[in-house]
Design brief:
Elements: H1 2-42, H2 50-77, H3 92-118, H4 126-148, H5 157-196, H6 218-251, H7 273-296, H8 301-335, H9 346-375, H10 386-409, E1 420-422, E2 425-428, E3 431-434, E4 438-441, E5 444-445, E6 454-456, E7 459-461, H11 467-476, H12 485-523, H13 528-531, H14 534-539, H15 541-572
Antiparallel strand pairs: 1-4, 2-3, 4-5, 6-7
Helix pairs in contact: 1-2, 1-5, 2-4, 2-5, 3-4, 3-6, 4-6, 5-6, 7-8, 7-12, 8-10, 8-12, 9-10, 9-15, 10-15, 12-15
GO molecular function: proton channel activity
Transmembrane segments: 26-47, 53-72, 93-117, 129-146, 229-250, 271-295, 311-333, 354-379, 503-525, 537-558
GO cellular component, one term: plasma membrane
Length: 573
């Protein structure tokens, strides 16, 4: 019977494995077709226009909308059924984050609609249809993720696999489209900045696919065109977050719930004051540096060099602090003896893979800068600051990845909230009477031989052992019962553990704010990899720009993803 059951289980899982492979291949082909279409539009391929790309994206979004509506309707009809949920997926703070990015994305869509209305004489109708479709898609997708991100789908599994993977790669293509559009805008500004730094020998024709007609209202056109590019970083983060949440949903299809899943601990500000203060100082100073950088860069050669020097010195200081904090956290982990949680967890596995995979983007840029500094014949003064900066970026990500990955794999301390220490103190005939602290389990005292102390308001009731209890009480009157050495040892160990936890929570809070701080500069156009010019001289303008455009989105995403992971580490510690 046992063998027969195993054979049935194996035969049942075989079609599901095939469905997983088929759906993943469908998604990859969908993505590659869209990627080539995007590339063809970017390089002005013959016969490929922006309307073709937008038509493809609109079609994908409409298909996803139909699937989500079908899934929501089916869930509505089965709402009374008890469904398995993955407690690790779709955390509330993650849903709040994606909602914030989605709201800003809707503002971006409104700007695009206004931009289309102003240039409607020479723009394709698809450029007006796209933002409308995208806005509807955003609203429904956020609602879907709020309600169903934790689902472990057990019915219509083959169909659902295709629907979810379609949604994953649709969001990845929308992310790619946003990255490309934002990068083209950055390139135009980059060319002007290089000229002010004295790299006039670099020549390349840049094109931003601007409309070939006049705007109906010049002021509004300027507001819409400039505002769009400041909102793109949020749109980019929205789509990458949505694709990761949907990917976890896809991995959970057909998966059975594990009964030992841990419950999420809520985030608390208590005990992380030091980390928050230092982190906020870094955040505020970073915002100030970015503002000054964007004002000064490109104004003149001297101002541009000062802006780059200021950026590098600030970043070096922050990265040194982050490296130090990460090393301290890892040393604390080495002093602790706690098991790692190796249970199956798609969300945790994806977090670890994304940390290492996206860190490779900034590692590539850092090694490019290091090689450029070594190989360049001439070195302006400000470029020497790029060397320690690039080395520290590599080291900091290495240390931080170790800390985060170990943190999310460590088993939570089994601390029972119902376990409390009861100290019984009373005043009897002017003297203090103290009993040995007892640990109360689930509201009841756990004492040897059934001796259970009770506490009513401010008085003590005797033990439930008849006359012996009265004799013992009278014999202890006017005397102080000394605590055993084992109790002090217990409190000492507990105090050390609490101190370690407090340090780790402060480090996680500090690194969380530092990662948010380091996300801001590249997301809003403060990119020294573009602006210092040394890499373009060594590698050539076009090759280096291609490397930066490929690696920068991963570098930006790494910081936001690290911040999200560190928030979870803080809650878990």
């Amino acid at each position: 019977m046992e063998k027969g059951g195993g054979a049935c289980a194996a035969s049942g899982s075989y079609p599901q494995k095939n469905a997983e492979i088929l759906s993943s291949q469908y998604g990859i082909n969908l993505f590659l077709a869209g990627l080539l279409l995007t590339f063809a539009w970017a390089v002005h391929a013959v016969g490929i226009s922006k309307s073709h790309l937008l038509s493809y994206l609109i079609t994908l979004m409409l298909i996803q909308l139909l699937w989500m509506l079908w899934y929501l309707c089916r869930s509505c009809t089965q709402r009374r059924l008890i469904r398995d949920k993955d407690t690790h997926a779709g955390a509330r703070w993650l849903k709040c984050g994606i909602t914030l990015f989605a709201v800003i994305t809707l503002i971006l869509d409104a700007f695009k609609i206004g931009y289309y209305i102003d240039f409607s004489n020479c723009l394709s109708p698809t450029e007006g249809i796209f933002p409308v479709t995208h806005a509807v898609h955003t609203i429904l997708q956020v609602y879907f993720l709020w309600c169903h991100a934790k689902d472990m789908i057990q019915s219509f599994k083959t169909l659902e696999r295709f629907g979810v993977i379609h949604s994953v790669f649709t969001n990845l293509l929308l992310w790619t489209n946003g990255v490309l559009t934002e990068s083209k805008h950055q390139l135009n500004e980059h060319k002007e900045r290089l000229i002010t730094l004295g790299f006039g020998n670099i020549s390349i024709v840049l094109d931003d696919h601007a409309p070939q007609c006049n705007c109906t209202t010049t002021t509004l056109c300027s507001v819409f065109s400039q505002g769009i590019y400041y909102l793109y970083p949020f749109n980019i983060e929205y789509h990458i977050l949505a694709s990761t949440m949907l990917y976890v949903l896809w991995k959970n299809i057909g998966r059975k719930v594990e009964h030992h899943q841990q419950h999420k601990t809520p985030f608390k500000f208590h005990g992380i004051t030091v980390g928050m203060i230092f982190g906020l100082i870094v955040l505020i100073s970073t915002i100030a540096i970015v503002v000054v950088y964007l004002i000064q860069i490109g104004r003149s050669k001297i101002k541009s060099e000062l802006a780059l020097t200021m950026f590098y010195l600030h970043a070096i200081f922050v990265l040194i602090l982050m490296c130090t904090a990460g090393i301290v956290a890892l040393l604390i982990y080495r002093l602790e003896d706690r098991l790692l949680d190796n249970s199956k967890n798609p969300a945790r596995k994806l977090d670890a893979e994304l940390l290492v995979g996206t860190a490779a983007g900034s590692w590539l840029l850092s090694w490019g800068s290091i090689l450029a500094i070594i190989c360049a014949q001439a070195h302006p003064k400000y470029t020497w600051y790029n060397l320690p900066y690039s080395v520290l970026v590599i080291i900091e990500k290495y240390i931080q990845n170790l800390f985060i990955i170990e943190s999310i794999h460590r088993e939570q301390e089994k601390v029972n909230d119902n376990i409390k220490t009861l100290r019984i103190v009373t005043i009897s005939q002017g003297s203090t009477l103290s009993f040995t602290p007892k640990e109360i389990y689930n509201g009841r005292a756990a004492c040897d031989n059934g001796e259970v102390p009770c506490l009513f308001k401010s008085s003590i009731c005797g033990r439930d052992d008849g006359g012996n209890g009265a004799k013992e009480e009278s014999s202890q009157e006017n005397s102080l019962v000394m605590h055993p050495a084992s109790d002090f040892s217990f409190y000492g160990r507990n105090s050390v553990t609490n101190n370690k936890r407090r340090i780790l929570k402060n480090i996680a809070a500090f690194l969380f704010l530092c990662n948010l701080s380091l996300w801001i500069p590249p997301a809003f156009g403060c990119r020294p990899e573009y602006d210092n010019g040394l890499e373009e001289i060594v590698f050539g303008f076009e090759p280096w720009i291609i490397v930066v455009n490929l690696a920068m989105p991963f570098s930006i995403f790494y910081r936001m993803h690290s911040a999200a992971s560190l928030f979870e580490v803080n809650c878990k510690t």
